[in-house]
Protein: GTPase Der
Organism: Insolitispirillum peregrinum
Amino acid sequence: MSFTVAIIGRPNVGKSTLFNRLIGRKLAIVHDMPGVTRDRRSAPASLLGLEFEVIDTAGLEVSGPETLEGRMRQQTERALAEADVALFLIDGRAGLTPMDEHFAQLLRRQKTPVILVANKCEGKAGDQGMYESYGLGLGDPIPLSAEHGLGLGDLLAALLPYS
Ligand code: GDP
Ligand code: MG
């Protein structure tokens, strides 16, 4: 029996970069510039031999009366409903932002288990954000570099109980 992992978090924290690494191909579009249309996608993934379904979330496409925040919230809630566990990414280099806090509040109030992940933690530049993220009330962060493929063993260990 496979399980489903959702990758959530504010724009630009590296969700699609992690998604691409886990699925092993360039299905999700990674952009340096925020505000680009991106759809939610799911695909079969494997992490050091552990297999699961992974969902990437975006939600930057705003149409009609929808707000960016409303759309992101809707996408996140849909992904959480389908997932057995969620990876909540923050950007260790940027540190915590009000939008991270906003997401964290939403996540603390729902029932899907959440693994806190501090991305962009290659080198020392990510330490500050990683330490700050202890304060989110979502447990100990796992330092990761989705771009450089660092921290994947610890991520595997965190996901195993849900497999
Ligand atoms: P998303 O909006 O959360 O899906 O973020 P993206 O995956 O599109 O990445 C946003 C930016 O962060 C891109 O410029 C990525 O190359 C960069 N990025 C992603 N992961 C890492 C990482 O581990 N380290 C660093 N330094 N940059 C990263
Ligand atoms: Mg993305």
